[in-house]
């Protein structure tokens, strides 16, 4: 998702911080640097060949779905044996695992690009057509990956005896059994957090910092049961494939509302606001 940000400039940044008279110069400079890194990374992704994007996004859809498998295992094994708050924490922690695979593996996740790929467009360095192309390829490939994994997990996990079909149903109904406005607004919050994740990972200097940030943000999404269109598609489809009373119509409703919410959350509350702040800071400087 993002490489280390300040590799050649650590010494210079340290000296600037010591020499700064008002103590505000360094944070402003750092903020702009993060934005420039987001723009450069977004441009690189926008210019990638379609085949490479598709394969990377397909891999991301498969990899992130390991969260579903671990959630189902903990739900099966711990429910009724451990206190409910402990089960919730275990399931939320396992939710973060798939995101760690994706971020550290540098594969393409749609909710990353709802922030990352928008910033070059806002800066006038890319077109809406390029953005639409990227979103379409990554979104479709992510969903193909999650669909394949959900079908496999819903069959293999019960066959191995590590998870029961009712666990997949419980996870799926936890996402679908809400009014439309709840799913949409929950999706906004999830998209907002994923946008922040992209920003914070860009600001991180090392892999350990990235791991901590990814685990913190995605565990928050998991414990709050927020609606993430990619991981959520694996969760809901596993309920469909397991025959747990979740319909394809219910999946389509979830997917449309969660996707809309994720896009709004990432674009409005992260990309637009942070880009606006960075550019205003640069104008004042």
Summarize the structure.
The chain is mainly α and 285 residues long.
Q: Please, could you describe this protein's structure?
A:
- The chain has 285 residues and is mainly α.
- It is built from 13 helices and no strands.
- The longest helix is centred in the last third of the chain and has 37 residues, at 248-284.
Order of helices and strands: HHHHHHHHHHHHH
Approximately how much helix is present in the residues? over 70%
Number of helices: 13
Uncertain residue segments: 1-29
Shape: globular
Rg, nearest Å: 20 Å
Number of strands: 0
Distance between the termini: 29 Å
Give the helix/strand class. mainly alpha
Main sheet characteristics: none
Portion of residues in beta strands equals under 5%
Summed over residues and divided by their number, the pLDDT gives a mean of 88
Q: What attributes does this structure have?
A:
about 280 residues, mainly alpha, about 80% helix
Write the layout of secondary structure elements.
Blueprint: H1 10-19, H2 25-46, H3 50-64, H4 66-78, H5 84-105, H6 110-116, H7 118-122, H8 128-160, H9 165-176, H10 180-203, H11 207-223, H12 229-241, H13 248-284
Helix pairs in contact: 2-10, 2-13, 3-5, 3-8, 4-5, 4-8, 4-9, 5-11, 6-10, 6-13, 8-12, 9-12, 10-11, 10-13, 12-13
């Amino acid at each position: 998702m993002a490489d280390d940000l300040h590799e050649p400039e650590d010494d210079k940044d340290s000296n600037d911080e010591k020499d700064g008279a008002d103590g505000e110069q360094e944070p402003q400079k750092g903020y702009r640097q993060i934005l420039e890194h987001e723009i450069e990374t977004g441009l690189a992704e926008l210019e990638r060949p379609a085949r490479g994007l598709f394969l990377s996004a397909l891999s991301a859809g498969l990899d992130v779905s390991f969260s579903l498998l671990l959630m189902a295992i903990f739900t099966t094994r711990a429910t009724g044996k451990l206190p409910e708050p402990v089960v919730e924490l275990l399931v939320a922690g396992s939710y973060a695992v798939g995101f760690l695979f994706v971020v550290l593996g540098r594969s393409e996740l749609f909710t990353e690009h709802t922030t990352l790929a928008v910033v070059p467009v806002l800066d006038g360095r890319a077109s809406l057509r390029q953005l639409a192309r990227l979103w379409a390829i990554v979104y479709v490939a992510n969903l193909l990956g999650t669909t394949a994994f959900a079908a496999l997990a819903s069959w293999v996990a019960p066959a191995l005896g590590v998870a029961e079909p009712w666990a997949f149903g419980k996870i799926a109904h936890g996402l679908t059994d809400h009014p439309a406005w709840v799913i949409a607004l929950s999706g906004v919050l999830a998209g907002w957090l994923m946008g922040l994740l992209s920003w914070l990972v860009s600001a991180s200097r090392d892999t350990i910092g990235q791991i901590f940030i990814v685990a913190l943000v995605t565990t928050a999404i998991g414990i709050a049961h927020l609606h993430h269109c990619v991981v959520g598609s694996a969760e809901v489809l596993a309920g469909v494939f397991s025959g747990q009373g979740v319909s394809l119509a219910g999946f389509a409703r979830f997917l449309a509302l969660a996707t809309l919410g994720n896009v709004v959350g990432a674009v409005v509350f992260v990309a637009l606001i942070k880009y606006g702040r960075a550019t205003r800071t640069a104008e004042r400087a």
